[in-house]
Write a sequence for this structure.
């Protein structure tokens, strides 16, 4: 594998899809359906996923999985994980906090080789590849001293808790409704800790690559090791550890 080549393919796919997503967000011309109770999808999600899929499948040899019922992995360990619009509820409600995310991840050990997250409304691309560093647009992200108020993003959907020692310096808590967006906040060092005790592979895979390249740490625990694609995960990420 030439990781930088896969990284450039991911950038191309995410940037093209994000242009489409932003146009749909501005035009407000999309259909919305409820897949499950309180779980929504729009035709913008589906079209964006197809845009990404077409580029990845034509330029890369790795199989693809995606949030919107896309499972082409064929029992292989290294897969592309796609979240075409992470933050669909925000997108539907005209809240500009949503992201388009793609990662190349190894399901055997959860190594994220490539991670690309685009924030269409904010014209930001936060990306990384294994050994190549992390970038905000084309500028390399450097880890700065932690000298601001400590903020954490936390979701305790299963009732699990972090140790008091991990929370002792946290003074404020936030939830933005998009895991990928929250990982970009962590990458830009605007928050100090990300924790979710029930998230999906495509929600954290791109962010994991980015945080690792900045020098941070991401702990991943699947609940169902027999079905890593559909398993929920407990994920904790921090830059200062």
């Amino acid at each position: 594998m030439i990781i930088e080549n896969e990284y450039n393919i991911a950038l191309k796919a995410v940037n093209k899809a994000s242009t489409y997503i932003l146009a749909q967000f501005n035009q407000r011309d999309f259909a919305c359906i409820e897949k499950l109770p309180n779980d929504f999808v729009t035709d913008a999600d589906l079209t964006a996923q197809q845009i990404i899929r077409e580029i990845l499948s034509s330029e890369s040899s790795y199989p693809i999985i995606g949030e919107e019922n896309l499972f082409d992995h064929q029992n292989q360990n290294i897969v592309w994980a796609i979240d075409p619009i992470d933050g669909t509820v925000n997108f539907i409600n005209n809240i500009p906090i949503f992201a388009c995310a793609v990662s190349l991840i190894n399901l055997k050990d959860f190594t994220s080789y490539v991670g690309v997250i685009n924030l269409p409304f904010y014209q930001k691309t936060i990306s990384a590849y294994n050994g190549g560093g992390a970038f905000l647009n084309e500028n390399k992200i450097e880890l700065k001293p932690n000298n601001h108020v400590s903020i954490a993003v936390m979701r305790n959907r299963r009732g699990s808790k972090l140790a008091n020692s991990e929370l002792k310096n946290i003074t404020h808590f936030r939830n933005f409704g998009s895991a990928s967006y929250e990982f970009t906040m962590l990458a830009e060092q605007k928050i100090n800790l990300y924790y979710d005790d029930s998230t999906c592979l495509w929600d954290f895979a791109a962010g994991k690559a980015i945080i690792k390249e900045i020098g941070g740490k991401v702990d991943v625990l699947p609940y169902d090791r027999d079905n890593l694609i559909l398993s929920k995960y407990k994920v904790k990420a921090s830059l200062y550890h």
